[in-house]
Amino acid sequence: MTMKERESNLEALRIVAMMAVIGVHLDGAALDLPKPSMDIAALPARDWWRLIVEAFTIIGVNCFTLISGYFGIRFTLKSFLRFAGQCVFYGVGICTVVMLLRVATGGVWQWSEWGESWLVFTHTDLWYVPAYLGLFILSPLLNAGVKGLTRRQFGLMLAAFVAMNVYAGWLQGGRFNATGYTIVQLVMMYLIGRYLGEYVQLRGNKQLRYAAISVYIVASLLTAVMGVYADSLTTFAYNQPLVIASSVALFVAFATMQFRSKVVNWLASGAFAAYLLHKNPYIWVQYVRPVTRQMWEDSSLLEFTALYIAATVAIYLAAVAIDQLRRIAKVKLSR
Predict the structure, then answer these.
(1) Helices marked H in the chain — which ranges?
(2) How far apart are CA 209 and CA 92, in angstroms?
(3) Nearest Cα to 163, choosing from 239, 77, 111?
(4) Residue 3 above 50 pLDDT?
(5) Containing H/E element for 124?
(6) Are 63 and 93 in contact (CB under 8 A)?
(7) Helix (H, G, I), strand (E, B) or coil at 189
(8) First to last CA, the chain
(9) Alpha carbons 264 and 15: distance in angstroms, whole number
(10) How far is CA 75 from the centre of its chain?
């Protein structure tokens, strides 16, 4: 099934998930999260703001992977080249612009630095890129394994896999997946998405949608409260049980919807570009993070909230626009 054939409900979630990724970076990654105070009543408003925002946006990566699992990754040379090409475009493109500006201002072109920008799967600060490559490579095996199992067998295997990740990984700090920033986490969320896609009827179920929204809100609020008592790596780990629950709940809420929108599908096509753009080290370290911190220090909480929302939307829309230019250039070069 191609993106053009899909309904827009999960494309809308793709947009929301990537905006959540941007949002979580503008919050915890840029501002740092408060240390556990062990006192809810005494927690300042700004600390509550950071914890609540982090709790509601930490679902981005999990939801993005759930979508891949629900539809199933189609492993082909063309799809690999498309993925790799997009990563190279932003990695090399941004580095090239930086080098040109450096030379224009009297600096020196660093050939070794520029050369490393081509190594998008190894020399990168974007952990999701090599992790998703691993998931991409494993997808034919995962898809075939799912097809070879009965629903009961798949359900038991998946439950055991989730339990292992939560207990041995998150609770016990297992190195294979202590905080969820690994291919193991992506495989788990992908398989949850596959199970929902294969065996659970979601479309049009309004009662399930309302229940899922409730679960998302409650699980997110509980995660925020947990941040008062536990460190941020533990609280906001991707394999933290409440984070998994809120991620799956939000996915289910969108999966039960039914609508089509060319605008939504078009906006969703630039979702991954938004990640590659704003979290690129040159842009993140030199611009996004310091500007966000300065806004936090100079603005009231209400003012910063407005700026935070505007920045999240602006980054996403800028990425969509740039990616459309990339697509146009690609089409013209291929003729």
Answers:
(1) 9-24, 30-31, 45-57, 60-71, 77-104, 111-116, 128-147, 151-164, 183-199, 206-229, 232-235, 241-255, 262-268, 271-278, 281-283, 289-298, 301-334
(2) 42
(3) 239
(4) no
(5) none
(6) no
(7) helix
(8) 26
(9) 8
(10) 21
Task: Give me the count of residues in the chain.
Answer: 335
Residue entry with tokens 């220090």: 297
Nearest to 273 by CA among 316, 311, 241: 316
Q: What percent of the chain has pLDDT over 70?
A: 97
Q: What is the mean pLDDT of the chain?
A: 95
Name the amino acid, one letter, at 197: G
- On the question of pLDDT at 4 being above 60, the answer is no
**CA 176 and chain centroid, separation:** 20
Tokens representing 313 are 């939307």
DSSP per-residue string spanning 191-257: HHHHHHHHH---TT-HHHHHHHHHHHHHHHHHHHHHHHHS-HHHHT-TTSHHHHHHHHHHHHHHHT-
What is the C-alpha to C-alpha distance for residues 200 and 114, in angstroms, rounded to an integer?
A: 47
CB 267 within 8 A of CB 15: yes
pLDDT digits (tens, 9 = 90+) for 302-320: 999 999 999 999 999 999 9
User: Which amino acid is residue 296, in one-letter code?
Assistant: W
For 24, 32, 218, 301, 335, the CA distances from 236, given in Å and listed in that order, are 10, 12, 15, 22, 47
Tokens for 46?
């700004």
Structure tokens at 174: 């297992």
How far apart, in whole angstroms, are the C-alpha atoms of residue 296 and residue 258? 39
Cβ distance 16 to 86 under 8 Å?
no
Which pLDDT score, from 0 to 100, does residue 31 have? 97
Rg (C-alpha) for the chain, rounded Å, is 20
